[in-house]
Amino acid sequence: KQEVTQIPAALSVPEGENLVLNCSFTDSAIYNLQWFRQDPGKGLTSLLLIQSSQREQTSGRLNASLDKSSGRSTLYIAASQPGDSATYLCAVEGNNRLAFGKGNQVVVIP
Amino acid sequence: EAQVTQNPRYLITVTGKKLTVTCSQNMNHEYMSWYRQDPGLGLRQIYYSMNVEVTDKGDVPEGYKVSRKEKRNFPLILESPSPNQTSLYFCASSKSGEQYFGPGTRLTVT
């Protein structure tokens, strides 16, 4: 069974600092990996999707890398803003099933 | 607008009273799935469907039923709800691995 771990569970950073969020998974036979953002009491918003054949994806201030062999992905958010405060979830798809980490809860302090 | 809709958004019910949470998508996606989100446990997959009339169990299927009679709809059925099914439920659809989530249904079973 795929296990997905996200570290740290929670972090606070001052505005302007770069954010680095880590996701690890136990089974490297994945189809893709997706990063989501979730605001309190809200649904999930897709941020970046990395197919298994890709090493990274970028969108604006966001960059996500994927290293299948070591079972790791990193989400990098440049120059954080208070509006980046949210929970970030990593999800791994394999065998038609999706496994989520428990999230990185981020607070960006103005 | 491309979207996944769920109804109802909030529901309070009593133990044993059958209920259905509807899910509909307008993107012609073949893959649909249901998740529950609980504090400390994260998001866990309940059921998924690869296409019409094709459904399969996820990680926590006990106490739930699903059906997929049309491509756009994927209802979640709780035939005899119990308090341990109190949770936040999300429906999702996907194409080429990118997941689109509904807004969530907050269910309380007393």
Largest sheet of chain A: 6 strands, mixed
Share of helix among residues of chain A?
under 10%
Most residues in contact, chain pair and counts: A-B, 23 and 24 residues
Main β-sheet description of chain B: 7 strands, mixed
For the terminal residues of chain A, how far apart are their CA atoms? 40 Å
Number of continuous helical runs of chain B: 0
Number of helices of chain A: 0
- Approximately what portion of the residues of chain A adopt beta-strand conformation? over 45%
User: Could you state the order of secondary-structure elements of chain A as H and E?
Assistant: EEEEEEEEEEE
What's the β-strand tally of chain A?
11
Percent of residues in beta strands of chain B: over 45%
Characterization of the model:
- The complex is a heterodimer of chains A (110) and B (110).
- Helix content of chain A is 0%, strand content 60%.
- By secondary structure, chain A is mostly beta strands.
- In chain A, strand 4 (32-38) and strand 5 (44-51) form a beta hairpin.
- The termini of chain A are far apart.
- The relative contact order of chain A is 0.35.
- With 110 residues, chain B is mainly β.
- Chain B is 0% helix and 55% strand.
- In chain B, strands 2, 4, 5, 6, 9, 10 and 11 form a seven-stranded mixed beta sheet that branches. Chain B has a four-stranded antiparallel beta sheet with strand order 1-3-8-7, with no helix packed on it.
- The model of chain B has no long low-confidence stretch (mean pLDDT 95).
- The chains are: A mainly beta (110), B mainly beta (110).
- The interface between A and B is medium-sized, with 23 and 24 residues.
Write the layout of secondary structure elements.
The complex is a heterodimer of chains A (110) and B (110).
Chain A: E1 4-7, E2 10-14, E3 19-25, E4 32-38, E5 44-51, E6 56-59, E7 62-67, E8 72-77, E9 86-94, E10 97-100, E11 104-109
Chain B: E1 4-7, E2 10-13, E3 19-25, E4 31-38, E5 42-51, E6 54-57, E7 65-66, E8 76-78, E9 87-95, E10 98-101, E11 105-109
